[in-house]
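Design review, sub-item: ligand-bound model
Attendees: FS, YL, KQ
YL presented the inputs for the adenosine-5'-diphosphate complex:
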Amino acid sequence: MTAAETTQDGSGLRVHDLSWSARGTVIVDDVELTAPAGRITGLIGPNGSGKTTLLRAVARLARPDRGAVHLDGSDVARLRRRELARRLAVVEQHAGTDLDMTALDVVLLGRTPYRTALQADSGADRALALDALARVDMAGFAARKWSTLSGGERQRVQLARALTQQPGLLVLDEPTNHLDVSHALSLLTLVREAGLTSIAALHDLNLAAMFCDHVVVLRRGRAVAAGSPHDVLTPELLRDVYEVDADVGTHPRTGRPLLTFHPPAASQPPAPAPSSQEDS
Ligand SMILES: Nc1ncnc2c1ncn2[C@@H]1O[C@H](COP(=O)(O)OP(=O)(O)O)[C@@H](O)[C@H]1O
Ligand SMILES: [Mg+2]
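KQ shared the predicted structure:
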């Protein structure tokens, strides 16, 4: 599916001319982007390029100066809070979570938009939450206090909460930054299998290449490229945007782009000395 196809029936996420500034400095500059329905869109770009700010504006956590966000044809700015929470779930980099809550309590927050204020959690809500904890490999942590969880465990609990919210759009800000390689791969596999429209800021470009169907590149607040990983992740773009020297090959199993980065020429480390021991 191409980004252009999404715009025809209004499904998926569409961001129009979005701008956000802080004290006169433009941080997100007139961004136009689409995220195809049911696919993962990767938002990439160097540190400080505006990824977090853009995602916060998409999720209505920051009010843009200008522009609009449409989700499956609805203007996000016009949705009531509760409706917004049913349609869109966010996994922020640093969730401001009550330290005394248990992991299960945190996941159950995902059911809040479906309950009235005084309604207790139903058995069905708990079943959904426990299932989501199991899906992020945190089944044994239901009763653990949030304050005792590691960064990676918190990230997985937050994803479980977001999935329990059963949203149309999943907004993820560096969802794998605290995760070891195995948990990073399984978290992104889980997001892919959830089949939701997802937009994720990702630092690891090889993970973006492997899991994203569509990639949008930010540089100094502007969207400078968008398309399939194959079309976008070229040595030219990586040099331009990240100022790195990279080779782009093909992943032997997935057929996706596989990036290899080279140290700057002036600081080439010496080759490791050959080992004196035979491989055993
Ligand atoms: N509230 C704010 N006030 C001033 N500058 C901000 C504010 N929020 C973000 N910025 C600046 O905007 C730029 C983009 O930040 P951010 O969106 O966090 O980038 P990224 O997520 O791509 O690393 C950074 O230079 C950051 O310092
Ligand atoms: Mg960020």
